[in-house]
Amino acid sequence: ETEAPNQLLEESVANAQSVDVYVVIADEEKRGEANGVVQDLRTAGHAVAQPLSPAKVGKQFQAAEQLGAGFAVVVGAEFPEVSLKNLKDRSEIQCDADSVVEQIGSH
């Protein structure tokens, strides 16, 4: 009898944790700039996650996959140029940080 409520709870938790975009911080010195990208994406209505403490890039991509993110924005030393990775089809483009919201909207 408790299987259905447990399944509903698991689905609800999975949906609550789902994000549209994960911002990967490849260079900790660019965390402030990454926060700006996060804010722009949230203002545009996207559910966004980012690492709260320094982590290796591989671990950040792993977190993005676990959260179900469709896109990852990689903020690194090249800022304001960022990498925008579509995590579903594995495609990647380089774009200006100011155009990330537009680029995600066009996919």
Question: How are the SSEs placed, and which strands pair?
Answer:
Layout: H1 3-17, E1 21-25, H2 31-43, E2 48-49, H3 57-66, E3 71-75, E4 81-86, E5 92-96, H4 100-105
Parallel strand pairs: 1-2, 1-3
Antiparallel strand pairs: 3-4, 4-5
Radius of gyration: 15 Å
- The global form is globular
Per DSSP, the total helix count is: 4
The end-to-end distance, rounded to whole angstroms, is: 42 Å
Strand coverage percent: 15-25%
**How many strand elements?**
5
- Could you spell the SSE succession in H and E letters? HEHEHEEEH
The biggest sheet amounts to: 5 strands, mixed
The neighbouring-strand order within the major sheet is 2-1-3-4-5
Q: What structural category characterises the helix and strand content?
A: alpha/beta
Low-pLDDT stretches are none
Helix content: 40-55%
**Average pLDDT reading:** 91
Give an account of the 3D structure.
The chain is built from four helices and five strands. With about 110 residues, the chain is α/β, with parallel strands linked by helices. It has a five-stranded mixed β-sheet, sandwiched between helices. Strand 3 and strand 4 form a beta hairpin. The model has no long low-confidence stretch (mean pLDDT about 90).
What's the short version?
With 107 residues, the chain is of the alpha/beta class. It has helices at 3-17, 31-43, 57-66, 100-105, and strands spanning 21-25, 48-49, 71-75, 81-86, 92-96.
